[in-house]
Design a protein that fits this description.
The protein has 933 residues and is of the alpha+beta class. Helix content is 51%, strand content 18%. The longest helix is centred in the C-terminal third of the chain and has 45 residues. The chain is elongated.
Length: 933
C-alpha cells in the first residue's frame, strides 16, 4: 500500500479538541472572566466577615465606659439583712472572689475569656472629713472611701507605699457614743494631697452622719491614716475610668454658685474588714436592734471590660446570652451575700451594631448579587462568541455524523478546561487578599461561575448542531417564555421587598430582595427593547426621507438587531443600575455622616461642663481659630409634662437655653440653620419655647428645671431645630437663656457652642478648655469616626470596586456585542463598498446601528436605579451606620450625569477598539467574502 493510500488517523474528539484550542481568544476571555469574578466574590465574602468582626470591636471601643462594660453591683439595701446589736463591729470578708467565680460561670467560657480580670471595688458615699485632731479644712470638702484591689499595679508611689491592714486603734466619739476604733491605712493621689495640704502620716476623720444618712440609718465615724501618696503610671489607662476621682479632685456645684471639693481616699483590700466594722450603724435611742449587714454602707462593684480587639461577630449571641444570665438578680448568686444587679449598656451597643451590620450585609448582598449576575451575562456572551467562532467546526462535525450531545460535550470540555482551573485560581487568590487564612469552603457563587460557561456553551452547541436536522419550535416562543419568567420573578421580588421589607431590615436574608436591582433592570430592559423596535423602525423611515441612507440604514439595522441584543444590552443596564445604586449609597452615607455629626454636637464644637463661668466664655472667644461662642444651658433629656389632671402626658425633649439670635448666627449657613425666634422675656411666669416637632403652636406644659417648676408655651415649631440621632431621638426644645433665668434663677451655664476652624477644634478636643469640663465634642471628629468605621469603609470600598467592575464588564459586553454583529456589519460594509460608498459611511452606519441600543440600556439602568431605593425604602436603611434616624437613599443628579457620560464613553471606546480590530483583518478574506456576497 502506497503512502497515499495509507490509513489516516481518525478524527476523534481529543484531536478536534486540540484543534479547537488553537483558537484561544474566546477561551482566554472566559478564563479571565471566571478567575477575576471568582476572586472578587471570594474576597468580597471574606472582606464582609472581616469588617463585621472589626466593626463589633470598634462599636465597643467607641461606646461610653458605662455602655461597653459589664458591671455587677451589690448595694447595701440588696444585702442579706440580719439583726445585730448596736455594738456589732462587722469584721466581714470581701465578697469579691466568690461573686467573680459565680459570674464567670454564668458568662460561659467564651465571654469569660473576652473579659479578662475584673476591676473590683467597694465604695462608700461622700462624707465630710476633718483632721483627727479636730482641725477643719477650708471649703468643707467631702470624700468617698474606696476599697480598690490591684492599685499598686497602676501607680508609682511618690511617698509611702500601698495601704495594708489596720494595726492600731484610737478612741473616737460621735453622736452614737464613745468607742475604740481601728485606724485604717489609706492612700491618696498626689493631686489630692496637694489640694488639701495633707502629707504622709496625717490622720483624718470622716463623719457619715454629719452629711448623710445611709438608707435612713446613721453610720459611725471612721478614722484613717495616710500611708501612701501615688501618681498614675498612665492616666489614660482604662483602670481609672470607673472612678476618675482616685486621681483628680472634683467638685459638687452648689445652688448659690459655689462648689464643694470632692476626692476619693483609697483603702487597701486588707483594710476591708476594718472599714466595714467602722461603718457599723450606731444604736438609736431606746436601745433597739438595728438591721444591717457586716458590710453596711459600701456599694460593691465588679467591672468586666470586654477586650474589643478579640471580639468577633459570632460572639454577639454569646454576649447577649451571658448578659441575660447575669441579669437574673436572684439566680445562682450566693444567698448569704444578697441580690447582685447587672448594669451594662452592652446590649444596646450590640443592638446598634446588629442593625448597622444588617444594613451593610444587605447592601453588600446587592453588590455581590449584581456582580454575580453581570458575570453570568458576560460569560453567556463569551460562550455565544465562542460558538460563533466554532460554527464551521460544528457544521463539519455534523456532516461527519457526530451526534449533537457529543458536540455539546466537546464544547463543554473545551470551556471547562479553562473555567474550572480559573475558578480555583481566583478562589485561592481571593482567600489571601483581605483577611488571611480562613475557611476552605468554596462559595456557591464561585462554583456557579465555574460551571456556567460549560453548561451554557454545551446547550448552545447542542442547539446549533441540531439546527436544520430536526423540526424545532420557533425561537420566539422560547424567548417569550423566558421573558415572562424574568418578569414574574421580578414582580415576586418587588412584592417581597414591599411586604417583608421590615424583616429584611432587621437582618433576615432574602435572595429575591438582594437580586431586586438586577431583576428590575433585566425586566425593564426586556419590556423597553420590545417597544424600541417599532420606534427605531419609524425613526429609520423618517431618516430615509430627510437625512440620507447612513442614518436610515443604521436605524433600520438597529431596529432589527435590538431585540437580538438582549444579553449585552441587559448587561449594560444592570451595570449602570448597580453602579448608580452603590454610588447613591456612598453619597448618602457620607452626607448623613456629616449631618448626624452636626445634629449630635449642635455646632462645630460643644463643651459640656458642670459649670462654665463668664470669664471662661471670654477666654474661649479669645482662642485662635474660634469664630464665635454661645453660652447655653443644656439638658439632653428634659422631661416635660403636657396637659393637666392627675395623669399628664410625659414627653422627653432635648432642652437648649441660649440667646436665640446668637445661636441662629452661629449655625447660619450650616445644616443646623433655623428661623425660630422665641422671645427673650417670659410672659409673666410662662416660658416661650420653640420646638422641632411633636407639639403645636399654643400647646402648654411644665418643666422641672433644677428643682423649679416652670410653665411653658410653644410659640414656634421649626423642623430645622431637629437634633435627633439614633442615640437620642427626642425632639428639640429651644428657649431663651435670659427668659429661663428670669423664672429659674438657679440655672447656670453648662455648655458652650463654638464655631471653629478644624485646627482649633482639634486643640480644644485635646485638652480641658474650662476648669470644670466634662466632655469636648467635635462634629468633625464624630464625622471622621463614622466615615472610618469598618462597615462604612467596607461599603465605600465595595462601591468603588463595584463601580470599576461594572465599568469593565460594560466595556466587555459592548465589545462582545460588536464581535457578535461584526460578520453582518462587515458584509454590509462590503456591499456598500461595491456600491461605491466611501469607507467612512460604513463606519458611520455601524455607530448609528450600535449606539441607540447602548444609550437605551444606559437610560434603563439610570431609571431602574432611581426606582430601586423607593421599592427598598422599608428594607434598606442607612441610619444605623451613621447613628441617625431612618435614612433612605438619595441619588444626586451629578452622579446620574457622571455615570451616563461614563457609559457612553465606554461604548465609544469599544467602537474604537472594534474599528481597529476590523482594520487589521485579512483584506483577501474580506474580498472573498465580498465576491461571495
Amino acid at each position: 500500500m502506497t503512502p497515499r493510500h495509507a490509513p489516516t488517523r481518525g478524527l476523534g474528539l481529543a484531536r478536534i479538541l486540540r484543534r479547537h484550542l488553537r483558537d484561544r481568544t474566546p477561551i482566554a476571555l472566559i478564563a479571565i472572566l471566571v478567575a477575576v469574578l471568582s476572586g472578587l466574590l471570594t474576597a468580597a465574602s471574606r472582606a464582609e466577615q472581616r469588617a463585621a468582626d472589626q466593626a463589633l470591636g470598634a462599636a465597643v471601643r467607641a461606646a461610653e465606659p458605662g455602655l461597653r462594660d459589664i458591671n455587677l453591683s451589690l448595694s447595701p439595701q440588696d444585702m442579706t439583712f440580719v439583726g445585730v446589736p448596736g455594738t456589732d463591729n462587722g469584721q466581714a470578708s470581701a465578697p469579691f472572689a466568690v461573686i467573680d467565680a459565680t459570674a464567670r460561670k454564668l458568662m460561659g467560657a467564651r465571654v469569660a475569656s473576652l473579659t479578662g480580670a475584673p476591676q473590683m471595688s467597694a465604695q462608700s458615699d461622700y462624707f465630710p472629713f476633718t483632721r483627727l485632731n479636730g482641725q477643719t479644712f477650708a471649703d468643707s470638702p467631702i470624700a468617698a472611701l474606696r476599697v480598690q484591689p490591684g492599685l499598686a499595679e497602676h501607680v508609682t508611689w511618690v511617698s509611702g507605699g500601698p495601704p495594708g491592714a489596720a494595726s492600731r486603734t484610737v478612741p473616737l466619739r460621735d453622736r452614737g457614743g464613745s468607742r475604740t476604733v481601728q485606724v485604717i491605712p489609706v492612700a491618696v493621689s498626689a493631686q489630692y494631697a496637694a489640694r488639701f495640704g495633707v502629707r504622709l502620716g496625717d490622720e483624718l476623720r470622716l463623719d457619715p452622719d454629719v452629711y448623710f444618712g445611709a438608707n435612713g440609718v446613721s453610720l459611725r465615724a471612721v478614722a484613717v491614716q495616710i500611708v501612701g501618696i501615688f501618681q498614675a503610671r498612665d492616666t489614660g489607662d482604662d483602670f481609672w475610668t470607673a472612678e476618675p476621682g482616685m486621681l483628680s479632685v472634683g467638685v459638687v456645684l452648689g445652688t448659690d454658685g459655689g462648689a464643694i471639693p470632692t476626692g476619693v481616699i483609697v483603702v487597701g483590700e486588707d483594710g476591708y474588714s476594718a472599714l466595714t466594722g467602722a461603718l457599723t450603724p450606731w444604736e438609736p435611742q431606746g436601745g433597739t436592734t438595728v438591721m444591717s449587714t457586716s458590710a453596711f454602707g459600701l456599694e460593691h462593684h465588679w467591672r468586666y471590660t470586654v477586650t474589643s480587639d478579640a471580639l468577633r461577630s459570632d460572639d454577639v449571641s454569646e454576649l447577649k446570652a451571658a448578659l441575660t444570665r447575669l441579669g437574673n438578680e436572684r439566680g445562682p448568686w450566693p444567698t448569704s451575700i444578697g441580690s447582685i444587679r447587672l448594669a451594662s449598656g452592652l446590649s444596646t451597643v450590640i443592638d446598634r451594631y446588629a442593625m448597622a451590620l444588617a444594613t451593610t450585609r444587605a447592601l453588600h448582598a446587592f453588590a455581590t448579587t449584581a456582580l454575580f449576575a453581570l458575570g453570568l451575562l458576560c460569560l453567556a456572551l463569551s460562550s455565544a462568541v465562542l460558538l460563533r467562532r466554532r460554527a464551521a467546526s460544528i457544521h463539519l462535525l455534523g456532516v461527519r455524523g457526530i451526534s449533537a450531545p457529543h458536540v455539546g460535550a466537546l464544547l463543554a470540555a473545551e470551556t471547562a478546561l479553562a473555567a474550572l482551573p480559573a475558578a480555583v485560581l481566583g478562589w485561592a487568590v481571593g482567600r489571601l487578599l483581605p483577611g488571611g487564612p480562613g475557611g476552605s469552603a468554596i462559595p456557591w457563587g464561585v462554583v456557579a461561575l465555574a460551571l456556567a460557561p460549560a453548561l451554557v456553551t454545551a446547550s448552545l452547541a447542542v442547539r446549533a448542531a441540531r439546527r436544520g436536522s430536526q423540526v424545532r419550535t420557533r425561537p420566539t416562543v422560547w424567548r417569550a417564555a423566558a421573558e415572562i419568567l424574568v418578569l414574574a420573578v421580578a414582580g415576586f421580588a418587588v412584592a417581597t421587598a414591599l411586604s417583608r421589607g421590615s424583616e429584611v431590615a432587621r437582618g433576615t436574608s432574602d435572595w429575591s430582595v438582594a437580586a431586586l436591582p438586577v431583576l428590575l433592570a433585566l425586566s425593564v430592559t426586556l419590556v423597553v427593547l420590545r417597544l424600541a423596535r417599532p420606534a427605531l423602525d419609524l425613526a429609520g423611515r423618517v431618516a430615509a426621507r430627510r437625512t440620507g441612507f447612513q442614518a436610515m440604514l443604521g436605524l433600520r439595522r438597529a431596529a432589527t438587531g435590538v431585540t437580538g441584543s438582549v444579553l449585552p444590552l441587559a448587561t449594560v443596564a444592570v451595570a449602570v443600575t448597580i453602579a448608580t445604586f452603590l454610588g447613591s449609597a456612598v453619597s448618602t452615607l457620607v452626607d448623613q455622616a456629616g449631618r448626624t455629626a452636626y445634629r449630635s454636637v449642635g455646632a462645630d464644637v460643644r463643651i459640656d461642663a458642670q459649670r462654665i463661668d463668664p470669664g471662661e466664655i471670654d477666654a474661649l472667644r479669645a482662642r485662635p481659630g474660634v469664630g464665635a461662642v454661645v453660652p447655653a444651658y443644656a439638658v439632653p433629656r428634659q422631661l416635660a409634662l403636657l396637659g393637666g389632671g392627675l395623669d399628664p402626658r410625659r414627653e422627653t425633649f432635648q432642652l437648649l437655653a441660649a440667646a436665640p439670635a446668637e445661636y441662629r448666627q452661629l449655625v447660619a449657613g450650616t445644616d443646623l440653620a433655623f428661623t425660630a425666634d422665641p422671645s427673650e422675656q417670659a410672659a409673666g411666669k410662662v416660658l416661650p419655647v420653640a420646638v422641632s416637632g411633636l407639639l403645636a403652636v399654643g400647646d402648654t406644659g411644665s418643666l422641672s428645671i433644677e428643682g423649679t417648676d416652670v410653665a411653658f408655651e410653644v410659640v414656634a415649631v421649626d423642623p430645622a431645630l431637629d437634633r435627633a440621632t439614633a442615640q437620642n431621638t427626642a425632639p428639640s426644645m429651644v428657649v431663651s437663656l435670659a427668659a429661663l433665668r428670669s423664672v429659674a434663677p438657679v440655672v447656670q451655664v453648662n455648655t458652650a457652642l463654638l464655631r471653629t476652624t478644624p485646627e482649633a477644634a482639634q486643640a480644644l478636643s485635646q485638652g480641658e478648655p474650662t476648669a470644670l469640663s466634662e466632655a469636648v465634642l467635635s462634629r468633625r471628629a464624630i464625622e471622621a469616626a463614622s466615615v472610618h468605621d469598618p462597615l462604612t469603609v467596607l461599603i465605600r470600598s465595595g462601591a468603588a470596586a463595584g463601580g470599576l467592575v461594572a465599568a469593565a464588564l460594560t466595556l466587555v459586553a459592548v465589545l462582545l456585542l460588536l464581535a457578535l454583529t461584526r460578520p453582518a456589519r462587515l458584509e454590509m460594509l462590503l456591499r456598500l463598498r461595491t456600491m461605491g460608498a466611501p469607507p467612512r459611511s460604513g463606519r458611520a452606519v455601524g455607530v448609528i446601528e450600535t449606539l441607540p441600543g447602548i444609550v437605551l440600556a444606559i437610560v434603563i439602568g439610570l431609571a431602574s436605579a432611581l426606582i430601586v431605593p423607593r421599592l427598598l425604602a422599608s428594607a434598606f436603611n442607612l441610619g444605623p451606620l451613621v447613628g441617625a434616624p431612618p435614612v433612605t437613599l438619595v441619588t444626586p443628579g451629578a452622579l446620574l450625569g457622571v455615570i451616563a457620560l461614563a457609559g457612553i464613553d465606554l461604548a465609544l471606546l469599544a467602537l474604537l477598539i472594534d474599528a481597529r480590530q476590523a482594520a487589521r483583518s485579512d483584506l483577501g478574506q474580506a474580498l472573498r467574502r465580498g465576491e461571495s456576497a
